[in-house]
Amino acid sequence: MPTSVMPTSKRNGPRPPAAVFAVGLRKSYGDKAVLDGIDLAIPAGSVFALLGPNGAGKTTTVKILSTLIAADGGQAQVAGHDLAGDPQAVRAAIGVTGQFSAVDGLITGEENMLLMADLHHLTRREGRRVSAGLLERFDLTEAAKKPAAAYSGGMKRRLDIAMTLVGSPRIIFLDEPTTGLDPRSRHAMWQIIRELVAGGVTVFLTTQYLQEADELADRIAVLNDGRIVAEGTADELKRLVPGGHVRLRFTDPAAYRAAASALGDATRDDASLTLRLAGDGSQRALRSVLDRLESARVEADELTVHTPDLDDVFFALTGGADVPDQHEETVR
């Protein structure tokens, strides 16, 4: 059974209805079960991140939900439409940006946009209006007349997403959208995703960059061996993994000794006058520490809360499966 936490959201108020809902999705290739019965409930106007090592089934999940391949079992609704019963309605409501760019490098950025407008059956006038607006929005106006082959990786990715938005989709599937981008381009892509969600778009994001999920996602699911092994907010997932602690630092040796006496279960570092207590980083655990200090009439000079990061969560839940270097300076 997957580790699960109650649904919450970064946004206030009641949660909107599910933009993507799935129960028991299964997919096999030969004897290999790529998806082994996964459940999803993704609220509209949110970012949902699907994490997992290579081969976990992330791309297969995107392909099924975007009607590119059929599931072997289970049920799903996307944008309120049944995936199997009304795939055309699903396609009309979604946009998909895959791992590999759909940009045609032999034509200009503007021509790529107009081609997409034709595919969406926009009139010539409307296609030019929509294309010009999206090229400006994605800071591609100056490069619009240049062949897309001359674009940088970040520019191609922006053009890719701009092309996806021509049809005004309500749900966008982004399959590892920042793979291969330099840190500046990656941060620019994050801002684009935030702006899309602020405009009411639902974003289904697969990624191997754990910081990316931490920065963007309202909810995160960890997929391993075809199953969702945990789901929750980034903070909730981090609390599933042992290793969190509260660190107290003192400058007054007498206060340090008094605190150590009051907090008998703390680990002491007499040289630096610091105490360390195991904790999950929750408000409840922190209040307990503060109440014990207050009863002892002691005040720490510095208090810091340390929780495991998503790297720790990933390795704990996937059995140490390989994941790319998460340092922001790395360029893949």
From TrEMBL:
* Record protein name field: Daunorubicin resistance protein DrrA family ABC transporter ATP-binding protein
The molecular function terms of the Gene Ontology recorded here are:
ATP binding
Keyword Chaperone listed: no
Places the protein is found: Cell membrane
The protein's topology relative to the membrane is:
Peripheral membrane protein
The record's section on SMART domains has: AAA (SM00382)
The entry's keywords: Antibiotic resistance, ATP-binding, Cell membrane, Membrane, Nucleotide-binding, Translocase, Transport
Keyword Hydrolase listed? The answer is: no
What the record says about family reads: Belongs to the ABC transporter superfamily. Drug exporter-1 (DrugE1) (TC 3.A.1.105) family.
> For the ABC transporter domain, which residue ranges apply?
20-250
